[in-house]
Input
Amino acid sequence: HLPFAPAIGRGDDAGAGQREHAVLAADEDPAPLPFARSFEQADDFLPILQLAVYENGANLQTATAAITAAGHAITASTSERDGLERIRVAMADGHIDAVLVGIPGGEVLIKAALSLAPWGPVVIAACSGKASDAVREGNTVGADLVTIRPHDAERLGPVLLAAARILEQRRDMMAAQQG
Output
């Protein structure tokens, strides 16, 4: 596992072995470098989120596939309006860490999630179109994060990492206030 390979350039000083920058060659072991060990150790602690997904048919399939490919779990998913109640109950019971909600259409679920603050799930709005429009739409409905369709692990993975960090910070803040 080489977190900084393949290297673009080594930055050696005239072949003397002195580095200007900490860049590794593709065949070089990062273990001697303390920052590389930190990155490897951090990988061991990435949280697995329990997600609920409300999206339309085709987007529901790609979203759930991307979420599982990114290493997270689906607790509830639906594309049907009558499935919203099941997700709302799971959120209220504390079984959902984050909810991915397609907009337009899922605004009622976002309102339900926001009503559970500060213990509610992280809200991720899923939008189509340009990023600038999606951010505006997500902000309008109160989403914590926004992702752009079509869903895939490369796009959704970083958003899920951000959701995990937000959740962790919320929990730390609540624990500090209680104790």
Q: What stands out?
A: The mean pLDDT is 80. Helices lie at 34-43, 57-69, 84-92, 107-114, 131-141, 153-178.
